[in-house]
Amino acid sequence: MKVLAISDKIDPLIYSPRIRSLVGPVELVLGCGDLAPYYLDYVISMLDVPCFWVYGNHASGAEFRQEGMHEGYRRHPMDIHGRVVVEQGLVIAGLEGSIRYNSNPRFQYTQTEMRLNTWKLIPAMLWQRARLGRHLDILVAHSPPAGIHDGSDRAHQGFESFLWLMRTFRPRYLLHGHKHVYRSDEVTETRYHDTTVINVYPWKVLDL
Predict the structure, then answer these.
(1) Pairing relation of β-strands 51-53 and 78-79?
(2) What is the DSSP string of 145-178?
(3) In sequence order, what are the residues at sequence separation of 6 or more whose Cβ sits closer than 8 angstroms to the Cβ of residue 203?
(4) For residue 102, what is the DSSP state?
(5) Are strands 173-176 and 138-141 parallel, antiparallel or unpaired?
(6) pLDDT in tens, 44-57
(7) Which strand (E) or helix (H) includes residue 47?
C-alpha cells in the first residue's frame, strides 16, 4: 500500500492541482499534526482517499481555523487520537500533541500524561491481536519518541512511552512530525527493535 504522510507545513506543491501527478497513486493519507483541516480536506478530496490524523501542538493557532472545510470537499479526515482503527487491513493508532513546554492547556502533555494516553490504547490493541494476529501496524503521532529524531530544546523532546509501546507491541511503523527538517543530512528514518520510525515532515510517500 502506498501512503502519503504529511505534517507541520502546508506545502504549495501538495496544495495544488498538481498533487496527483506529484505523489502518484496513493491509497491512504496519514496526518501527523500541525496541519490546517482545510488542507487535509483538499488533499484527500483531490486524491479521493481516506485520511486519519492527529492534532499537533499548535492546534489552537490561527492556522487551524476552519475556513473552507465544508465547501464542496468530498472527504474529511478522521481524528484518531487515543483510538485504534483498521483501514484496508492496516491496524492504525493515533497519539496527538507534544511535550508540555508552556501554559497552553491543550495538545501538550507531560511524560506521565502521555504514558496514560498510551496505556489507554492497550485494550484495543489486544483486541486486534486476537482478531488479526498483531497488535498494531502504524502509530501516527505528532511528536517523536524520546531520543529518536527529537530535539535538545524542551519543546521538541520526545515521549518515553512511545519507546515502551514499540518494545511491547512491535508496530511496523511510527510516523511523526513536530521536528522540522532543514538539512539534507538530518536523520529522518531510524530502526528501533521491529519498528521503523519516520519523520514525515513536510510530506513523504511511503510504500508500506
Answers:
(1) parallel
(2) BTTSS--SSGGG--BHHHHHHHHHH--SEEEE-S
(3) 4, 5, 6, 7, 11, 14, 23
(4) S
(5) parallel
(6) 999 999 999 999 99
(7) helix 37-47
